[in-house]
Amino acid sequence: KYPKCWEYLLSNKTRLQKRDIQKGNSGNWYQFGRSQSLTKFNGKHKIIWPVLSLDSNYVYDDKDVLFTGGGNGPYYALRMKDGQQLSLFYLLGILSHPMIEMLVKSKASTFRGGYYSHGKEYLSKLPIAIPDMSNNKHKTIYEEIITATKKIVSLQRKLSTTVVPHKKNILSKQSNLLKEELFTKTNILYGVTDKEVHQCIHNLFLTPNYSD
Description:
The structure is a single chain. This protein has a 4-stranded mixed beta sheet. The protein has helices at about 5-10, 15, 90-95, 100-105, 120-125, 135-160, 165-190, 195-205, and strands spanning about 45-50, 50-55, 55-60, 75-80, 115, 210. It contains 8 helices and 6 strands. Helix 3 packs across helix 6 and helix 6 packs antiparallel against helix 7. The chain is an alpha+beta fold.
């Protein structure tokens, strides 16, 4: 269908055939060497974050944002497996908790400027609390975490487009109050106190952050 493109590929056929192509054979010598998960996140709501960051910096995406990843990033993403009942907003709320971020930072490689890695190897083994839905207390907290997280994401999006200082100040205060509420609810699931969390934040010099 594209003669000039085919002509270009043919002119490089010898070089292309020397590649180590996953599931390769002589008939597809021109394909991409690896899929790089190019379609894995298409049409899926997801959480995106940079591999290198100064703190928790997770972004909720429902706009089908395209990003580059694989290897060392520069981005990673997370989506729910088919059939999984947990809400993505619940995971976003848990991941943004400073105690969880402390666990990431305590194991991660560090780089110049205070940046540290948020690679898959540091996040895949995090202790994500799975609420017992047969327990009314757990179920209520689960729903409250989702509600608070959704509101924070909405406020952060408004903050990113608001230019009036007074309005930005109001939105920022509302967001901070919701974060405190979110963290308090998460504390209950993990059996930690507000004092321990604030001490954690102080020790790590972190300000929990929701991206838009």
